[in-house]
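Sat 14:20. Reprocessing the chain from the morning session after the first attempt stalled halfway. Input below, unchanged.
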Amino acid sequence: MTQESYPSMNTTELAVERSRLAADRTLMAWIRTSLSMISFGFTIFKFFQYIAESGTMASRWGGNGPRHMGSVLVILGTMLLVPATLQYRSFIRMLERQMKAKFPVSLVQYTAALIAMIGLGALANFFFRFGPF
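Finished this time. Tokens:
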């Protein structure tokens, strides 16, 4: 594809757009990692909670180890989104300063916030027995 296909964009603008999309992909990778940790931690916690409540193998799986492991994974998955999102925003602001333009808020940022809220909901369930879980 030649540059004539996009006459209104020069190569610098295209490079900035590629950089912005690369930052979006990086944040999406962090979101996937965080979501995996949150869901795996929540699954571990709920599985062992079900075993303890049903009375099967209760003596074999005593202690709070599974509860702690599940909660650590959920906390870690939720808290990893904070620095990843801050790094993303910092990079986008740097691009905006260089281009002297304002980019629209990306859907990826909204997704990161939603996943963080899901993680906080899982933590509320762990510690306060609160929520729909």
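Residues 3-128 form one domain.
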